[in-house]
Give the backbone structure.
Amino acid sequence: MNHLKPSYFFDLLHFKHASIFSGHQYVWEVLAKISPYLKSQKLGTLDGVVSPGAFLVNPELISIGKGSIIEPGAYIKGPCIIGEKCTIRHGAYIRGDLIAGDECVIGHDTEIKNAILLNGAHAAHFAYVGDSILGNNVNLGAGTKCANVKLDVKNIIIHHEGQHYATNLRKFGAVIGDNSQLGCNSVTNPGTLLGKNVYLYPCTNFGGFAPEDSSIRLESKVNVYPKKTRS
């Protein structure tokens, strides 16, 4: 099995924009296709409920599906596609180049740019999702950060099964497979790949590749001691 192909991470059967993944050998190649894909689409249809207190920048480049709710204080910059029955909550910051499927949640203080959210993906509280792909029913706990730039600002290289793959990307956050759950305040390092059904436990920093059905946690021990009484 090729662990780096889109099909390893996602079931695309019910995703309306599945064609963006077609023909790619490596899943990260899709990130460079988001902007061209959006430019090829007919945008500007606002079928959801958009609060007068929401900020839509370049609304002619924004499409919002039926049943979606854009709350007051949400900031959305086109181009982007937001599917049906999504909720974009107060304080959400969408910086453009977003493709979101149906029943997604982008919440308060969550910042997203150049990303794909498949159906049912939730980034509901204080998250950063840059240059990343979230699979079906992925949930990011509060405070999750998908870091997308290395400290040395060099292009990101994927290391997998003894091989090294040049992505030719300076900005690459995470690819998170279907039904994976990331705990509160977890961090993924640039170029992280998580297969389907992965648990990344709270306050865990992880980088690299984790296969499907993995559980990732810190093994450090926290001790509780009685307080010393003052003399």
The chain has two helices and 27 strands. The CA atoms of residues 193 and 209 lie 5 Å apart. The chain has one domain: 6-216. The first strand starts at residue 49 and ends at 50.
